[in-house]
Every structure is written in C-alpha cells, then in structure tokens.
Specification:
alpha+beta; 3-stranded antiparallel sheet; 11 helices; globular; SET domain-containing protein; SET_domain_protein; signal
Amino acid sequence: MARSIVSSNILAVLFLPLIAIMRTDACIFYEQSCHISSKDSYQSYPDLSHTRGNGTVGPETCLKVLTELDKNLANTVIDERRRKEELESHYIEILSPIYKVIPSPGRGLGAFAITPIPRGTKIIIEEPLVSVELPKIVPGQGYRIVDMVNDLEFSFENLSVEEQEQYLDLHEHRFPSEQDQSKLLTIFRSNAYNTGNNRVGLFPRIARINHSCKPNCGNYWSEQMGHRVIFAAVDIEEGEELTVSYIPLLKPASERKSRLGQYGFTCDCIACQSRESDHTRIKISKLFDSLENIPDVVTKKAAARTKTLVDLIEEEGLTDYLARAYRLAASYNQRLGYWLEAKKWALLELEMHQLAENDSHDAINTMDLINSLDDSLSNS
C-alpha cells in the first residue's frame, strides 16, 4: 500500500493571483523554483533517478531497465515512432549520462553537464509523474488551486513507493498563509508545468533544472507525444549548469525578480545584474509589439526592423524568442515579394522548432510556409 502524507488540516479556500502564470513559449503553470534538498547528488539515469551516487549502471541493469520499458511501451496506446523515441532517449541517458544533479551554490540542487552538450541535444524527455486538471479561475481572484487537492491525493496514492519518494523529494515553497496546507499541494504548485488540455503535471527530473534569465536550454511540451522535452538551445560546456526560464523574459530585472519571488528565491544571473540587458529586453519587447500586427502593405524599413529584432535577441541570448522573430522576418519579406530572403528566415524558424520536435504543429506550419515560398519562387 503506497504511503500517504496528506495533511488533514487543509485550508478551506486558497486563491492564487493571476500573476504571470503562463510562460511565453512553453506555457508553464507555476514554473518550478530553485530546488532545495538535502539528498546526495545523482547521475541522469531516467528510470533510475532515485539512485544516488556517481556509480555506473552495469549492462545487466541497462538491459533489464530497457526491456521492461519496451514491454511497458508496447502495452500503451502509442505509435511506433514514439516508442522508438522513448527507447532511444532512455538508452542514451542510461548508458551515457550527460548531466548530474549536485548542489548549486545558493540554489539548492541543480543539473550540471558532465560532458559537452551540443546544441539540439535532447537532454530530458519526460512524461508527467502526476497530471491533474487545472482548477477553475475565480473572477478577480485567480486560480482556486485548493480544488486540486483531491485529485493530487488520489494520484499520489496510486504511485509506487519509489515514485512517491520522487514526488516528496522535490522542493516546496510555502507562502506565510500556507503553513497548514497540504504538502502534496505546495510541492505540486512549486514545480508543476502545463501539459495541455487544461491540465498540469509534475516532472521530477525536469524539476531539478534551475532558472536563468539567460537560459541555455529550451523547454517544450509535446501535445502529440504527451511528454515534455528539455533540449540544449546552445552549445553547453562541461561543468555548466543547465537552466531554463520559469517566466517571460522581456521585462526589466526588477519585474522579473518580483515574479520569481513567489517561488522563494532571488535570481542573481548575469542578466539580472546588467542595466544594458534591461534596456535591450525592453527594446525587444517594443519591437515585437510594433511588428506583430503585420499590415497588408509593408515597407522595406519595417522589414529591416525585423532584422534588428533578430540581432538583438541573438545578442541577448534569448533563444526562447528566436522562432517568433524569425517568423516575423519571413512574413515581412514574403509581403515584399522577397521570396529567397523570406525562405532564409523560414528555414531558421523551422530549425528552432525542430530542436524540440521534428513534426510539431509549429514545425508543420513553418514547412507549409516554406512550400508556399518555393511555389512563389518557381512562379516568379
């Protein structure tokens, strides 16, 4: 029987403000905070993430894990492509771990590369350990997340003891009003991500990745595959901490710090210490605002501004926003009849989408644009 630690003294009602719950690109619900834990470090063995220490996994264990995984996948309603992708991901991570979870100065635990990780590498592919329906919004007040408690209790009771330990090992941040709140709820709220279809889920391995306002990893929810993907958005050096963004990044450092305060930590990344970075991000935000309502008739000057937007984003290292900027550059050049230039930008957009998933909805839309541009080129 799985053990339960659910508090019986649950607040009758808990409202959370509607402050910045959705992330711009990956739609994070209450993005995870820094992860405080007293546990020892461990390597990135996906199905063995409960294993502590830095030892290697022997071939017999690998075979056992992968055979069991293949058997489980064969009994689920998934297509062969997804089955192959899941197996490849686990095989690579078990035999050749590329990161480990160890203490991160001032940030609890963090995930650190133990080998150079090339851009585009899929670092973690993880299905939610627990997934529950997003609570209703009370007008003027926010999400009534206490309504999730019953669902969380039920889901928790159906986990194995090992899975329950993974859940309870995660960081929780409590507000002053939450001292008597359910531990399951506060852990979930501190770490959960959107999983599509009005649901939110908990991803224990992904939850170990800390925040940066200049992240080196992308974070993508695959609706069609039912898993979240963490991928290297840039080349990552050995020893470098893996980071994602929990919040929209085109705000001044003071606003970002205020947003992150709800997770119980203060970001001290390099971007938060730079006034020049603040000015650049505000300029990027204003360019997006002015360019995204594309007029029927565009000018060369407007198209040039899309190039300025791309340059600023690349200089600032905000890879989460590149696909969006590339699409604008492609669209403005398409309106001007500059088919080759438009295709150049569309191909860059496609590359960004395919870092996360080759045939995502966004990738397919971009491929449709490229095909349209090819037709225009052949007819010109």
